Each structure stands twice: as structure tokens, then as C-alpha cells.
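Morning. Coffee machine broken again, so started the prediction first thing and wrote up yesterday's gels while waiting. Chain of 195 residues, entered below exactly as on the submission form.
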Amino acid sequence: MTKANIRKIVTVVEEVLTEMGQKVSPPTRRAAAIAVIANPFAGRYVADLDDLMEIGEELGALLGEKCVAALGIAPGEAQSYGKAALVGENGELEHAAAILHPKLGKPLRAAVEKGAALVPSNKKRGPMGHPLDVPLGHKDAAYVRSHFDGMEVSINDAPRADEILVAVAVADSGRPLQRVGGLTHQEAEGKDGLR
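Came back before lunch.
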């Protein structure tokens, strides 16, 4: 198996205690774990992206477990998840897609227990310090509107031109002060990934 050449890992926890002067109880908590990795295909076109797919599988487990640990919760207590990648200027968007889509999801689902819903994703290209929005959605039921959310991350010295910043985010709740209706977390069955 190809191993990711990781330069650094950054883990961030955000805890929202108040919103619009209202107390958020319990606080909304999101964690992101971000790996800065060398892009093995930077600066050249390569048709076979299997190496990046294998790296995605490795990072799905590593980053998902780091998020759960940072939140201090049991894996089954995770309610939302998401993934994103920011490719440095010598890479291409397809490099991000190869990491995020074919194999990253399965180990991420294992890290948060179950995960019947698709993992929301985002990919982009940008310079060092560029912000990356990691979308969040309910892990078992895509129709739970209260969990349509996101977490912005950035690292001041990444990605360099020949790197990729790969991020996974996990939350233990929905948005603060959610009140747009729809299926609730408590009502979600998680059988078909939608409801």
C-alpha cells in the first residue's frame, strides 16, 4: 500500500457557546483534522491515480480517528462528517478527487460508526494559507437539515506548490440554534442514507 508522505497534521476543535446573544446548550462542537501531504504527481500528468486513492484510504482512517479523539467522544456519538482537499498549484483537481472519493469514505465511516449517508466533499486548488471549506452533513441521514453545515480551515504554510492539504471534519451536533425544520437527528433511522 502506498503511504502518504505527511509533512504535518493539524487538528482544530471549534466550540460554539453563544450565538446572536443566545446560549447554545449543549455547545456545538466541530473538529477538523488536516494532513499536509506531498503530491506524488505534482507537475506532471499521470493517467493512473491509484496511489492517491490508496493515500485517501489511509487518511480516511487517520483523520477520522483524530477528529473523534479531539472531540473526546465515542465514535457512535459523532453526528456529522465531511471531507475536502486543497491542491497546490502544481497539482490538478483530479488529484483531490482521487484522494477523496474512491476509498476515503469507508475508513472514515468506520471511525464514526456507521455513516449511511454520502460524505459531503469539496475540492479546490489554491496557494499556501488559502481557506478550505469542509462541508458537513448528517452521517446517517442526508435529509437532516439541521446538520447542513461546514467548517473553514487553513494552514498558513500549506499547501506548497507540490502538496495537497486533506481535511476531514466531524461534529457531535448540528448547527447552533437550528430552526429550519425537517427531519431531526432523533428521528433519523439511517437505513437508506437519506432518512
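The two ends are 36 Å apart (CA to CA). Going to sketch it on the whiteboard this afternoon.
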